[in-house]
Amino acid sequence: MKKTFLLTFLCSSFLLSGCWSSREIEELGLNVGIALDKGDKVAENMGRVEETPDSSGFLFTNTYQYVNISAVPSGSKDGGSGQKQYVNISEVGGTNHQIIREVSLREENPIMFQHTKVIVVSGDLLKDTSMRKLLDLFLRDNEMRLSCIVLVTKGSAKEVLNLKDPSVIPSLRLVGIGDNVYRSTKILKPMTLTRLQGNIYSNNSYLIQNVVSKSGEVRFSGAAVFSGKTNKLIGYLKEEDLTGVTMITGEAKGGIIKVNEGKKGRQRDFEIKTIKSTITPKVLNGKISFHINIAAQGRLSENWFLSHRPINQVLTQSEKEIKKSMEQRLTQALKMTQKKYKADVIGLGERLRIKYPRTWEKVKSNWDSTFANVPVTYSVEVNITDYGYNDPKS
Amino acid sequence: MGNGEKKKPIQGQSKALRLTGVFQDDIAHIQQLLEENSDVLYRNFRLSNTNKRAGLFLIDGLADKELVDKFILRSLMAPFSEEDHELIEQEGLKNYLKNTVLSIGEVKETNTLSNAVNEILDGMAVLIIESVTEAIILGIKKVKSRSLEEPISEPLVRGPRIGFTEALKDNTAILRNQGQNEDLVMINKTVGKRTKKKAVITYIKGVADQNLVDEIVKRIDRIEIDFLPESGYIEQMIEDNYITPFPQIQNTERPDRVIGALAEGRVAILLDGTPYVLIAPVTFSMLLQSPEDYYERWMPGSLIRVLRFLAAFISLYGPSIYISFISFHPGLIPTKLAISIASSRVGVPFPAFLEALLMEIAIEILREAGLRLPKPIGPAIGIVGGLIIGEAAVTAGIVSPFMVIVVALTAISSFAIPQYSVGITLRMLRFISMFAAAVFGLYGVILFTLLLLSHLVRLKSFGVPYMSPWTPLSIKDLKDFVLRAPVFKMKRRPMMLDTKDVRRKG
């Protein structure tokens, strides 16, 4: 009797619960990217009966990028149908969550954020709204993966998620470009939500990769500088400035250092194989200073400057020039961060905290302004280990 | 021959009846008891020159007629000499015949009618002689058996090509023939109430645990059933737990598997009339092992075993994990895979569970049909069913191509398991697992797994925990679990079997 009861109970608990909270994968909106832009009361209104809700308050636009699964070529249906593999839906509102639910009024499939790869935020929006507020939902919600990366664009974020090529999903392309960090010094380590969270909560200043779009193409171009105190955007670094920054932070994994000897047609390329950056903080009588040592090894990949000197001399000469070129970039990077933006985005504070925690305790509350006036010296070692099959001179 | 159903019960009153020695009466009685059996031959003749009548009963087809003619009838009918008559005077007719005339290996006697009738029906020749109150039973049975062929249900690449047959004597002979071993014990048992069948319990004395042997003998003695057509009956009558999908006794038609099990300290049960020999006790890992694991060198042996565990896992969980991912946890699939799965499911009208159920049932029907079909059209139907239905179902948009892959992989995996009965077990459980997945997703699958494991750790086969050597953990026995240690390293017999002689080597 007891057994029968138990068995009935077990069976019924399984059968009566039905397909609890199940949702088939094809009935979900597979969200891969989100773009945040400044709000536009008129353009995004979609002919609503009423005005945009609380149109008096702060408004911004969210663009959600879905995968258009019926346009994705699958199996025997080879080749693209020419249809775009994604759908972008824009909605206006005052908070992210509210906007997400607005989308439910337009689409039958609920949005699922577990596959969201990228959040692109418009720089205009970030100038007067803090990153923390804008991404609060995404940073705390349990649905979105913390490996999702954040990008900033100087222009319209919506446009970044809109490519000319219909066979590519823009969000996946953005993530893919980020993976090329070993091929260029101009790519920052991807700012995932995890890393962003760390920076936000520890009030560090930080850089986020800037992406620009033009006529359906995208390009990683420089970075946006964020102040640790306000979490707002304070300016941009150019692509060339970024090279110096990634060399200091050690984010550079590879890439080309171009050397131009002044005259036309006399350029050389140095391809970085390994690069190592050592930041040494020093505290002498309460005075903080830093020394940065950068050691790069690589190959002389391209040489337009033909000479008839022995190869050793050519290499020594090249190393000297490369070193000079790298030093210029470091100077430029330090100038931009220390003097122009007064924001420690190159991680000097972190080294100080580790090495001199007591000193750090004193300066941490006002670190960015201290950083702006800290003396930083640097040294660069360049070693060409490889120059190809032939002597570059012949 | 099919004399089984012809065996008439001997009625209570005639059971006690003894042979009277009055020839007419005895013959009449026996004939009365056998009257409905048309295959009984009766030969009435004069016993040599003794002036006594004699009658010989035998079953047509079961008896070796050449033997009867040459060594029974001829010697009984040939005239006895003077010395013979003197011997008859000294020893009595019956003993004289047994000692001097009947040159047959197996000679017994009985004085009851019922025994005589039973022996006749068993294929013996029974000789009734006037004024002798015992019937002489002559073993002239010629067992019809087929040649020893490779076992169909358990083929191996490497290993003996011999399989058991339906004849018990052949089977015991095969076991004896595997190498001289004076400790190989074979206990004869008769099972079945109405139709008596011979069974043999075999083990290696000095290796197998005596308690285990006693328990098996006790359980077999306790079997009360009128008829046992196959060893599966014994299995079901003596197993520990009948409400479990897991077989607690292994069946095999491979003699090498039986010998291996005996050497480990297990006990085998042979039944007349079936090539399937039972091995007890059984542990779960044993069901995923093949004798080949030991014949190959230890590395390929181990790897193939790992592969089989993997196959068992896929066979059990394949569709349920698919269902969980598709219906509950799309976030756990890598993005690109998620996109391609989602796109392949566009237009599929069923939820993943129904889709999986549909395909799994289809493939089970296909398997069953393929088994029943006459051999020549079997493969053709396999192609029609598998390829055409699979392809057409995808083209028609009823199922997604991914589902077909999952179902096919699962089906293949379930056939990679060397024991057919375990394959069925896993297939049954697969459906429960699919239900669990459909209700709660991966959480349900884990709940199901917990239930399954808690059942498994409680299950015992003749006192040996089913999940041993894993639970209870016996580190030494792990040498022959998922991986197989080199043969020279496996010095001890499995600890879980509690063998008398622990050391296998050195």
Secondary-structure-based class of chain B equals: alpha+beta
- Please state the overall shape of chain B, judged from the principal axes of the Cα atoms: elongated
Q: How many helices of chain B?
A: 19
How much of the sequence lies in strands of chain B comes to 5-15%
Helix content of chain B: 40-55%
Q: Report the end-to-end length of chain B measured between terminal Cα atoms.
A: 51 Å
Estimated helix fraction of chain A? 25-40%
Number of strands of chain B: 12
Strand residue percentage of chain A: 25-35%
Mean pLDDT of chain B: 87
Give the beta-strand count of chain A. 13
How would you sum up the major sheet of chain A?
A: 6 strands, mixed
- Count of discrete structural domains of chain A: 2
- Return the domain count of chain B: 3
Low-confidence stretches of chain B: 1-15
Give the overall shape of chain A, derived from the CA principal axes: globular
Description:
The complex is a heterodimer of chains A (394) and B (506). Chain A is α/β, with parallel strands linked by helices. Chain A folds into 2 domains: 26-237, no CATH class; 240-394, 2-Layer Sandwich (GMP Synthetase, Chain A, domain 3). Chain A is built from 13 helices and 13 strands. The model of chain A has no long low-confidence stretch (mean pLDDT 87). Chain B has a 5-stranded antiparallel β-sheet, sandwiched between helices. Residues 1-15 of chain B have low confidence and may be disordered. With 506 residues, chain B is α+β, with helices and mostly antiparallel strands. The longest helix of chain B is centred in the middle third of the chain and has 30 residues, at 298-327. Chain B has 3 domains: 12-138, no CATH class; 168-282, no CATH class; 294-464, no CATH class. In chain B, a hairpin with a 2-residue loop joins strand 11 (460-461) and strand 12. Chain A binds chain B through residues 14-15, 17-26, 28, 30, 32, 67, 69-70, 72-75, 112, 114-115, 117, 143, 145, 169, 172, and chain B through 325-328, 330-331, 333, 335-336, 338-346, 348, 351-353, 401, 435-436, 438-441.
